[in-house]
Amino acid sequence: MATPKIKSKTSTPQKSNHTPERKAALKPKRFKSAYSKAEMEEIFRRFSVQRPEPKGELEHVNPFTLVVAVALSAQATDAGVNKATRALFKVADTPEKMLALGEEGVTQYIKTIGLYRNKAKNVIALCRMLIDEFGSQVPKTREELIRLPGVGRKTANVVMSMAFGVPTLAVDTHVFRIANRLLMAPGKTPDEVEENLLKVIPDQYLFHAHHWLILHGRYCCKARKPECERCVIADLCRSPEKTVDVPAPLVELPQQLVGEAVE
Ligand code: SF4
Q1: Is 121 a known active-site residue?
Q2: What is the pLDDT of residues 237-255, one digit of tens each?
Q3: Atom number, ligand 1, closest to the C-alpha of residue 227
Q4: How far apart are the CA of 245 and the centre of ligand 1, in A?
């Protein structure tokens, strides 16, 4: 994954902490996207033609099962989580039913998922909190969501967007890689990337931007080797890792292309 270059230390004499240079260095760095406003519009226009209705691939039946699925998906593939949750959600699609299964019961369903013991513990604690403090309903604000055990900012953003239609930008591994690799919104942490992407993604594309970037990263701009010859933005891309300049034909992708590739 491309990361911003870190300047090497120089051998210049040490200066007082109060010099103007020092003060300037302490100011938060303004990031610079490699793309103009018009180029960002064009990139997302093409994504919107390619996938007019992008969807998340985590299976769920209501906001509660979505929160659980997203929390379980940390460091796991969506396909792996879906395999486990299909049976789990059939028997437990509410906080009460999940709580009744108990930690051991949940563990039996999710033990194919990484970190399953800790995740089962969090799911049970999350159900307790939903029942005790939120009337068994999934809360709608980020502040409330991140209070739930096992729910971080990324999970909260996904839930707000997918369950409640709030335009947010959850930064997962694919989004983080693309923002940095393409020099679109470089940042050292997911929070920094989120903040920077929010500044450069055109408003009208923000709602679906998370899914477009994930799907582009999962199926085209892959982690180990980007498939630039299949990329619809190859002519615009400024990544040093790019291998071709000619964009792939811009057509709407058939449904079967979604969900088949392996991460
Ligand atoms: S041209 Fe290559 S590096 Fe650039 S976005 Fe497309 S797949 Fe990724």
Answers
A1: no
A2: 999 999 999 999 999 987 6
A3: 7
A4: 9
User: Would you say 142 and 160 are in contact if contact means Cβ atoms under 8 Å apart?
Assistant: yes
Residue 187 corresponds to which amino acid?
G
Q: Is 55 a catalytic residue?
A: no
**CA–CA dist 69, 80 (Å, integer):** 11
- What's the CATH class of domain 63-164? mainly alpha
**Ligand 1, atom 2, residue with closest C-alpha:** 228
Q: What is the CA radius of gyration of the chain?
A: 21
Place of tokens 């057509």: 251
Cα-to-centroid distance, 241 and ligand 1 (Å): 7
For the chain, domain boundaries: 37-55+168-257, 63-164
85-138 tens-digit pLDDT: 999 999 999 999 999 999 999 999 999 998 999 999 999 999 999 999 999 999
Going from the Cα of 239 to the center of ligand 1, the distance in angstroms, rounded, reads 7
Task: For ligand 1, say whether the CB of 221 is within 6 Å of any of its atoms.
Answer: yes
For residues 82 and 103, what is the distance between their CA atoms, to the nearest angstrom?
A: 19
Residues 78, 119, 154, 242: which is the catalytic one? 154
Name the fold adopted by 37-55+168-257. Endonuclease Iii, domain 2 (1.10.1670)
Q: How far is the CA of 68 from the centre of ligand 1 (A)?
A: 32
Q: In which residue are the tokens 């899914």 written?
A: 211
List the end-to-end C-alpha distance of the chain, in Å, as a whole number.
15
